[in-house]
Amino acid sequence: MNRNLALEFVRVTEAAALSAGRWIGRGEKNAADQAAVTAMRESFNSIDFDGLIVIGEGEMDEAPMLYIGEKVGQGKGMRIDIACDPLEGTNTTAKGGPEAIACIAAAEEGGFLHAPDMYMNKIAVGPAARGAIDITQSVTWNLNSVAKASRKDVQDLCVIILDRERHQSIVKEARKCGARIRFISDGDVSAALATATPDSGVDILMGCGGAPEGVIAAAALRCMGGDMQATLEFTNDEEWVRAKKMGVKDKNQVYGLTDLAKGNVMFVATGVTGGSFLKGVRYVSGGAATHSIVMRSQTGTVREIETRHSFDKKPRYGW
Ligand code: VTB
Questions:
Q1: Domains of the chain, with CATH numbers?
Q2: Which pLDDT score is estimated for 318?
Q3: What is the whole-number distance in angstroms between the Cα of residue 253 and the centre of ligand 1?
Q4: Chunked mean pLDDT (size 10), the chain, 319 residues
Q5: 204 and 159 Cβ atoms separated by less than 8 Å
Q6: Which pTM was predicted?
Q7: Which residues line ligand 1 (CB under 6 A)?
Q8: Which residue of 30, 213, 215, 232 sits with most ligand 1 atoms within 8 Å of its CB, as the best mutation to test the pocket?
């Protein structure tokens, strides 16, 4: 996949982050999300590529922008599938909390699982524990296996998990094994990336979060050499009908890393609120500073980009 496109996409996540950044701590998560979506869409459409949103802000009838099936880009150049989350962490943005990011994953045509907007059970790890996870096995089995692969004691592992009632049994079992837990209020894409970031202090993501976020995280983990497994979590019949329409054949199918994101993929993110691996948007005299990460599976290069934006000279995508 064209590496110049990766840099173009950084501009897109920067625009989304800069727009959403204006809403940090203002208690209005929908406005923050809308700002990010508008900026991301406008900025996608200034790029010379033939993009198709396969994971976005929902389905056409319910989301007017960046909906699944929407074409983005100027329609020329490479045909690329896009999985995007203009603002991953709308709640934390509204509350001024940590780890909100604007992110895009891109793949060659057909590279992403067309995941419906529903829950997904996930286990994700960094390169040290690649091949050591099995979502069909217990929490205890996985922690022991990850500890062994990482040459650590189970007590030295840290599980990162969304702070939700539904995770009680995972938390109980992990604690029984002696593992430590880091609870997060939102943002399991950042959490998945943290497992593959050397000094983040977390080893394994467990639990149930959004399926679209799962596909985006898988693309990042492909680039970072990590691993992930997932299953869809159906909470009603309507979800099963929708999933079938999107090509899902087996309710219990286990999705490995390359079932979620295959072929050449790239991942780009810009920090909105500050987190463990990306700084948030900082407003400076006459402009703002952003911190982004861009990576490609083909080369495994992970590039960090600090950008100074001058508000006097740059077109403003809605911010
Ligand atoms: C996660 C998290 C998101 O949704 O996917 C989560 O990464 C799952 O849904 O940031 P619930 O909030 O219903 O648990 C978010 O928190 C918001 O999209």
A1: 4-111+265-310 (3.30.540.10), 119-260 (3.40.190.90)
A2: 54
A3: 22
A4: 87 97 96 96 94 88 84 91 97 96 97 93 98 98 98 98 98 98 95 94 97 97 98 95 91 97 97 92 94 96 95 68
A5: yes
A6: 0.95
A7: 88-89, 162, 164, 186-189, 209-210, 213
A8: 213
